[in-house]
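Inputs:
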Amino acid sequence: MSYTDEETGGKVYVGIPLPVILWDDGIKIFSSSKLNHGESIAEIEDKFYKLYHGKIYLTDSKGTIKYDEEGHPTNVVPLDFSITKSVVSMILVSLLMFILFKNLARSYSRNGLVAKGVGRFFEPIVIYIRDEIAIPNIGEKNYRKYMSFLLTLFFFIWFCNMIGLSPLGINVTGNIAVTFCLALLTFIITTVSGTTYYWKHIFWMPGMPIYMKLIMAPIELLGVFIKPFTLMIRLYANITAGHITMMTLISMIFVFRNWLGSSLSFALAFFISIIEILVALLQAYIFTILSALYFGFAVEEEHDH
Amino acid sequence: MEKLIGEFSFGLFFWQLLIFVGLIFLLRKFAWKPILDSVNERENSIKEALSSAEEAKKQMQSLKEDNQKILQEAKMERDNLLKDAKNKGLKIVESAKKESKLEAEKILKNVQERIDNEKKSVVKDIKNQVAEFSIEIAEKIIKKELEDKTKQDEMVKELLKDLSIKK
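Outputs:
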């Protein structure tokens, strides 16, 4: 958050400073207040760092940023492990999930196998994921070992999406790194649990003429990577697009500055917000069901087609 | 695409991986496993309860049918018993009637016989007594008649006449 100081004319930022952790010949930890949102240069152990367009660059004492011909900065970028807003909200979501579902789990033994408290609302969702996502896609035999991942995935994405819709506006799932991580896990689990039957279908499709086999192999192999890639892009793009739309509509309220345009924009922003709540759930659902589908492909056993 | 890669933050990826994988394992141990186990257990117990209720219903039905059968059998047996008893009663009455008739006839016969016998013995007695009397009378008459020869004869004649008539 920021406001313009009326006396000095400069911007004053209000917020909780978070730790910045850099890997640049050893770990460097300092408070984000030193960077002051790109306004000042942080000097740590004779090295100077500056925040520029959301990234921390190694710079000199004056904070010069050099550019190449295309206008990209050429300064050295140290590895940034900072506890950013996104990381904080991820930790918060994790804590929330942990407390919520641990209480749900505990309420069963205390209340004679009947859920109690807030968990009662989430229990049908857990059962839905088991009965409508995991079992039909993976199969009765194998679904158990994927349940932990699918449940965590669904609730994590959903809660992160919801936090992104709150006025805090911390857009966790709109980060490509986050969706990449989730998609990577799906990819790793699919690859690790792939049966010979699965790999045979990728490299040497049975029941096809030999020239078709030669054509199909690279396409199928590409598909292995495209599947998680689409997962990553879909979630990222949906959430980012939603945020951009919301931001645009909300800012239009202030751009119009008249009763007709502003109220129209407000109505639109309100409408889109409600849709975004739906999208938050829908994207979590799509990511989960597609992951389950890919796991299902991987563990499929040989049978008649 | 370039912008996408430019936007990729390795730090965020690192934290996300760490937190998410940690979360999966923590939740698996403390939440998902107990939740899914409990849900499964509950579903199984519901299924069992339903099937046992169904079974109980069936048992009830069969019990009811059995009861009906037993009742019917009992009724039939009662009817049979009643019929038998009635028949037996009738037979007994009939046989009793017959027997009593026979008995009565027998008794009647006996009585008749006895009466006859009595009669015979009475007649015999009377005969004997009459004989005694007649002997006495005859004695007396003979005694008297012996006094008078003619009269004696007459008397004997007359007495004999009387005796022959009486007999």
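Remarks. The mean pLDDT of chain B is 87. The two ends of chain B are 171 Å apart (CA to CA).
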